[in-house]
Amino acid sequence: MGVRRIRPISHEDRLSIVDHLDELRSRLILCAMAFVVAWALTAWQNHLVLEIVNAPLPNDIEPITLGPAEAFYSTLTNSAYVALLISLPVILYQLYAFLLPAFSPTEKRVALPLMLMIPVLFITGVVFCYFVVLTPAMQFLLNFNADEFNTQVRARDYYSFVTLLMLAMGLGFQIPVGVLVACKLGITSPEKLRRSRRYAIVAIVVLASLLPTLDPLTLILESIPLYALYELSILMAAAWGRPIADVSDQPAAEGSG
Predict the structure, then answer these.
(1) Helix axes 17-44, 46-54, angle to 10 degrees
(2) What's the confidence (pLDDT) of residue 254?
(3) How many helices (H) and strands (E) does the chain have?
(4) Considering the entire predicted model, what is its pTM?
(5) How many C-beta atoms lie closer than 10 Å to residue 209's C-beta?
(6) Nearest to 207 by CA among 87, 102, 132, 125
(7) Which of 7, 59, 179, 193 has the highest CB neighbour count under 10 A?
(8) Is the pLDDT assigned to residue 7 strictly greater than 90?
(9) For 164-200, b where at least 16 C-beta lie within 10 A, e where not — what string?
(10) Given a cut of 90, is residue 89 above it in pLDDT?
(11) CB-based contacts of 206: which residues, under 8 Å, 6+ apart?
């Protein structure tokens, strides 16, 4: 059964439940196809994928496996994670295309930039974690008290650690989106955010401590960019964080003038 052509839908269109479900099914199939194609590519290039994931390990350490199928499952799992990152733009586009017709033109002007920020910030967080956080963290953790331990790295544990850490950093980099949404909804304001800097620092350190590692070096490397994003959020909220009600009233006010 093929995927039917999806036509653009405007806010004024009125679709039945069946039409909505049919559109959702078609978009989910496209998302699945994008992921499968990306997974086939990363599975084909699995050696390159593993080389990239293993690069932060110090002293040319290679992860060890303790079961007959662990190498196979670890290879497929890492290929799937990278495939998800590659196919993420297609998946998010289909999500946006399905949700945006529900917004009015005014709400769409507010929602579209915020929704576009989510994948950009997520990928930025993942890239920052890989290039800035992972290598120093692995150097510190695997060399800590090295004279007293025969330190080896199990593949399953290492890949789970790396995946969770990058996922957590990607989600942590969503701070500007959360702050802008809160300002748009009138929950907070740039002035309140400036007055709450001390509480924000405590909350950021607590958030960083909930990530997969608790060593002081990684905690600092994780906390600094999160606080920088908080300060960036204040600037963005001051520029574009006016509540939706005020944005909706502006055209009417201009028209009456």
Answers:
(1) 80
(2) 46
(3) 11, 0
(4) 0.76
(5) 13
(6) 125
(7) 179
(8) no
(9) ebbbbbbebbbbbbebbbbbbeeeebbeebeeeeeeb
(10) no
(11) none
pLDDT digits (tens, 9 = 90+) for 189-228: 888 888 888 888 888 888 877 776 667 777 888 888 889 9
Q: What CA–CA distances, in Å, run from 226 to 136, 169, 209, 223, 229?
A: 18, 9, 12, 5, 5
Residue 103 is given by DSSP the state S
Least confident of 55-59, 63-67, 178-182: 178-182
d(CA 50, CA 39): 14
Whole-Å CA distances, 213 to 137, 140, 144: 9, 11, 14
**Can you say how many angstroms the Cα of residue 253 is from the centroid of all Cα atoms in its chain?**
38
What does the block give as tokens for 188? 């907070």
Say if CB 64 and CB 154 are below 8 A apart: yes
